[in-house]
Amino acid sequence: MTKITKKDFGKKLAKYGALSLAIAGVADATGQVVFTDVDPDFVGGLGDSFAIDFNDDGTDDIQVLQSNNGNYELVQALPTAGNGVIAASNGGYLYASNLAEGAVIDASGAFGSFGSFCAGGGYTGSQFCGAGEGFIGVQFDVAGATHYGWVKASAEDSSNFTVTEYAFEATPDTAIEAGDQGSLGLADQAFNNFEFFTSNDVLTMKAASAMESIVVYNINGQVVLNRALSSTTESIDLSSQATGVYIAKVSIEGAEKSFKISK
Predict the structure, then answer these.
(1) Is residue 23 classed as helix, strand or coil in its secondary structure?
(2) What is the largest CA-CA distance in the chain?
(3) What's the Cα-to-Cα distance from 250 to each of 119, 138, 200, rounded to whole Å?
(4) In the beta sheet, which residues pair with residue 119?
(5) Which of 48, 59, 137, 228 could form a disulfide with 86 if both were Cys (CB 3.0 to 4.6 A apart)?
(6) pLDDT of 206-238, one tens digit each?
(7) What is the pLDDT of residues 96-129, one digit of tens each?
(8) Rounded Cα gap, residues 51 and 98, in angstroms
(9) What domains does the chain contain, in order, with CATH numbers?
(10) Which distant-in-sequence residues (6+ apart) come within 8 Å of 210 by Cβ?
(11) Which residues make Cβ contacts (< 8 Å) with residue 175, sequence separation at least 6?
């Protein structure tokens, strides 16, 4: 399981990729859910948009946006060309399906090129208008492989929306359940109170129990650092690594946690 939390987002076109393509190098055959908590929640109004690059490959996979075409206002989920969102047709127009927690998102979904959360001007097919938080299912392409994910959001009306969380399955062609944040249990217990940050080319990590090892991968999935650890506070010198995005995998009490770092 990978959890990324407490990220600060900008107001316009906020982007925080959940994990780079190197996650394929640390995901196992049973799947790897990569979860991101949008903290603080992104609250959008007139003309605002929130872009999600699920796997941090530099391409936005989907946008949640508010727009006005001159006739009516709407909040819409708009995937990048070739991707899709689960949507239902009503009167020939696609509306994002408001999925319940636990709904399966896979190849059987009815994916469309867009899905309106909430449309004004008398349109009645919207499933999110004033309905509280729900999930939309997303299908997106990574180097020719299909991945599935979800976005938790709400639309108070056709002018206002909120995005709170999102996640995707890093293993290609593998289903994900709406709201799935990854496997719970041993890893959560071992990494309770785990913290990390980078400053001046040094990765600092703190944990309640002694860390056992760290492996760092570059965006191509290659191991650039592999080291044994033995303390509850560890500092890793990254000065010899090129500027860019990396995936660090840390082991504590036999459990592992993967997270993204930048330098």
Answers:
(1) helix
(2) 63
(3) 45, 29, 20
(4) 74
(5) 137
(6) 999 999 999 998 877 789 999 999 999 999 999
(7) 999 999 999 999 999 999 999 998 876 788 999 9
(8) 19
(9) 2-177 (no CATH), 186-262 (2.60.40.3080)
(10) 229, 230, 231, 232, 252
(11) 104, 105, 106, 148, 169
